[in-house]
Here is the input.
Amino acid sequence: MAPNVYLGLDSSTQGLAAVLIRVDAGRAEVLWQHDLEFDRACPEFGTIHGVLASTDRHVKVSNPRMWVQALDQMLTTLGQSGVDLSSLRAISGSAQQHGSVYLDDRSELSRPVAPIWMDSSTSEECAEITQALGGSAVLAQRTGSRAFERFTGPQIRKFSKLEPAAYGNTSRIHLVSSYLASQLIDGDAPLEPGDASGMNLMDLKTRDWWPAAVAATAPGLASRLPRIVPSHSVIGTLAPRWQARLSCPPARVIAWTGDNSSSVIGTGLVEEGRVAVSLGTSDTIFSLMHEPRVDTGGAGYVFGAPTGDYMGITVFKNGSLARERVRDAYGLDWDGFSVALRSTPPGNHGRLMFPWFEPEITPHVPGAGVRRVDLDPGDMPGNVRAVVEGQMMALANYSQWMGVHAQVIHATGGAAINRDILQVMADVFDAEVAQFEVGNAACLGAALRAWHGDALAAGTPVSWADVTRDLATPTSVGRITPGREAARVYAQLRRRYAEASVQFLRGTHDDD
Here is the structure.
């Protein structure tokens, strides 16, 4: 049997990635990879890190046309790469979660911009939805989370209130994932539970829209939402224009999902008891769950997983952009950042930073601003270590609700190539940290999902264990182990960090 080829795409906040894998006799290998940054590849849209400038720091939007143009460029590059795509069997993808795209009855944009996951401007709408549905606990039990400002339901409500005419002209509301999937099939793509569960609109148990939440969000919303299908569903075939571009057959298109749920597959979390940390634009920590365990504290939330299970996840908005802000403030490159990190001891002599450069998701910090404890802003090495330690302690403290203590953490995302950062992670969690040969877990997860969905549709199903065995298993060499003394230091410092965080949130702790 000839090898089969599968394409995975990932549209993140800052760029578009692609990975092509070849599967031969059940063994998978990477055939081709490519990345592009929106700011550089599509400069005419004027984005900064993929986001349009706004006078309101709570408003974060992007241009859907930019995502489509980037997709066109990516597939053009693939078609010109010289890679033989005659055996391309299926394509799937992932995209930044929560972003919403609004289309009229001609599939043109009825709203020129798309609010994205970084937006924090819908506190009023969150409160209205929460009250209408009986409180945060009820909403979390049914949809997997309390109402979050960046989630799609509150964003839709805000749009319907502030721009009723434009909302009235909207016939379909897509997420970024289903919008880009629609471009591939030249049709109206459905959603699947992994991405739909990030909207405060889907019932986790039924994996369908919760009528009460839909009614509480906006008038006539039910007719504007895509249908929800299982994650492995074939939603169509690659449109003829793309077949010509790639010189490929009419490959199956498997339902796209959100980047977080796609990363479950790309990091091999197909069994309970495993934990992954993604260090990207946002920092996230997540784990697979067979049954949903909702965070009663309201910091984390539960999504559907491509395996048919669930995933628990906690998200921190101030991820790589916060690290970059500290790096740039002292005129460093990443090598210099690492040198500064290595020059300071674990625990940083008790000096702390809460790197809330942007309004933070976890914990809920509506007012941006860095908070420091016993830390001079002019102390370059101290601030470098403080931003990394603060992020890692927050990841550890706010993930305890998942009830998982892993011996090995699967690390992915752009910053996961930095072993000095990962050493702090290992010490804070007192666990080994393992890296992957393929860095973009969401993109790899999309390619592996394409393989899984295609095999299922062909009547030759492949287990998730076999799908993830070759490419989504952490490397066994070069694992980063925690230092015994460093782990002891952080066990104490984490408690102090948690106490100081509460004091800042209550306004009872003065900034340095």
In short: The chain has a mean pLDDT of 95. The longest strand covers residues 27-37. The CA atoms of residues 266 and 441 lie 4 Å apart.
